[in-house]
Write a structure and sequence with these properties.
four-stranded mixed β-sheet, single chain, 2 domains, alpha+beta
C-alpha cells in the first residue's frame, strides 16, 4: 500500500470552539478527515475551515476554482493515472482542445483538485486562503455514531459530503455555467450518451458510460452534482437529501474523486490476531483494518450461503491505527454444531 500522503488541515470557527459539544464535533470532523487521509495517497495539503450554521439544510461548502484548458486538465489526468478506474476513465475521455460535455476549451477545477493533479501556483481567494469553508447545522444532527436519535441526521456523513465537494465533486449545472466541472465529464444517460441537462432524471455517474454507478439528482431543490434520492433507495454520502437515522460511508464517491485526479489507495487486508469466547459473546481482535472504516461481523451456520444471507451481529468503526477490537454479543449459540464468522467492510 502506498505511503499515506494526503493531509487535510482543519481550522475551527468560534461557532464550533464555543459550542458546549465542541470536543465531540471536532472529534467527528477529525474522524472524517482521517478516513480521506487513509484512502488517498496524493502528496498535497488541503486546508478547510469548519463552522456552524443555522440556515436551512444540513451543511454547505464554499470553494475556489480556476478556469484552465481542457487539454491541460486531460494531460494532467493522464500523467496522474494510478488506478484501474483511471485507465477506464481516460479511455472514455477524448484528447484534443475541447471538453466532451459542452464543447468549449475550458474546464473549471477547484484548488485542491488542481494540486492533486500536480498543477501548482493556483491559490484560493477564500478568506484565509483556505481551499474550502464547510458549514454544519449541528443542531439537526447526531454528533457521533455512539449515540443516535433516529429522527436526526448523521454529522459524520454530512462532513464527508462537504469534504467531497471541497476536494472537487460538484456540477456546473448548479450555477448554469457554460464550462463543466470535472465530475460533469462522467455524466451519462442510461443509454450511454453524455448528458448535461436538468430536464429529466436520465442522468448517471459512470466512468465508461456503460456501468452506471450512481444516479444524479435532477431536483432543483438539491445540488445537481449529488445523488438522486427520490423514492426507495440505499442512502449514500453524496445524496442530495439526507435520510434521518442513516449512517452511510463513502463508496461511489471515492471512485468519483479517483477519476477526477486523486489517487485511491487499495483497501488493506485485515488480519485476525485473537479470538475469545465468553458464554455467547465473541470478541475479535485484529490489525491492518481500514482506518476509520466501518466493519460488520457477519455470521452463518452454512459456509456456502451468499454473504447477503449471513446475519450481522456487530458493527464497529475502526480506530485511526487500523487496529480493532469488535465484540459480538449473543453471537454464539451453544446448540449449533458449527458457526462461521467473517468481517465485511461497509
Amino acid at each position: 500500500m502506498p505511503a499515506r500522503a494526503l493531509v487535510i488541515t482543519p481550522s475551527w470557527d468560534s461557532s464550533i470552539t464555543n459550542d458546549p459539544n465542541a470536543a465531540t464535533i471536532e472529534s467527528t470532523i477529525n474522524t472524517a478527515i482521517e478516513y480521506y487521509q487513509t484512502r488517498f495517497s496524493d502528496p498535497i495539503t488541503v486546508t478547510i475551515k469548519f463552522q456552524e450554521i443555522t440556515t436551512a439544510g444540513l451543511g454547505h461548502s464554499s470553494w475556489w476554482y480556476y478556469n484552465i484548458s481542457y487539454s491541460q486538465f486531460r494531460t494532467a489526468l493522464q500523467n496522474d493515472a494510478a488506478t484501474a478506474n483511471d485507465t477506464i476513465a481516460l479511455a472514455n475521455l477524448p484528447t484534443g482542445a475541447n471538453n466532451p460535455v459542452t464543447g468549449t476549451g475550458i474546464i473549471r477545477v477547484k484548488t485542491a483538485n488542481l494540486r492533486a493533479l500536480g498543477i501548482t501556483g493556483k491559490n484560493s481567494g477564500l478568506p484565509g486562503g483556505v481551499d474550502g469553508i464547510i458549514g454544519l447545522h449541528t443542531s439537526r444532527m447526531n454528533l457521533s455514531r455512539a449515540s443516535t436519535d433516529p429522527n436526526k441526521y448523521d454529522l459524520l456523513a454530512t462532513i464527508e459530503h462537504e469534504i467531497d465537494e471541497v476536494l472537487g465533486l460538484a456540477s456546473s449545472l448548479d450555477s448554469n455555467a457554460g464550462d463543466p466541472l470535472p465530475e460533469d465529464l462522467f455524466r451519462y444517460t442510461s443509454s450511454g450518451n453524455r448528458t448535461f441537462t436538468t430536464n429529466n432524471d436520465d442522468a448517471y455517474f459512470s466512468i465508461d458510460g456503460a456501468n452506471l454507478l450512481a444516479r444524479f439528482n435532477q431536483d432543483s431543490a438539491g445540488d445537481y452534482g449529488d445523488w438522486w434520492t427520490a423514492g426507495v433507495h440505499q442512502p449514500q454520502v453524496q445524496d442530495a437529501f439526507a435520510t434521518a437515522g442513516a449512517t452511510p460511508d463513502p463508496g461511489t464517491e471515492l471512485i468519483a474523486l479517483d477519476v477526477i485526479g486523486y489517487n485511491l489507495v487499495p483497501v488493506p487486508q485485515p488480519a485476525i490476531t485473537g479470538i475469545s469466547l465468553s458464554g455467547t459473546q465473541l470478541v475479535l481482535n485484529g490489525t491492518n483494518g481500514l482506518a476509520s472504516g466501518t466493519y460488520h461481523v457477519l455470521t452463518s451456520t452454512n459456509l456456502a450461503l451468499p454473504l447477503n444471507q449471513w446475519t450481522a451481529v456487530a458493527t464497529n468503526r475502526l480506530s485511526a491505527s487500523g487496529n480493532f477490537n469488535i465484540t459480538a454479543t449473543n453471537a454464539v449459540n451453544p446448540n449449533d454444531a458449527e458457526r462461521f464468522f467473517t468481517l465485511q467492510l461497509q
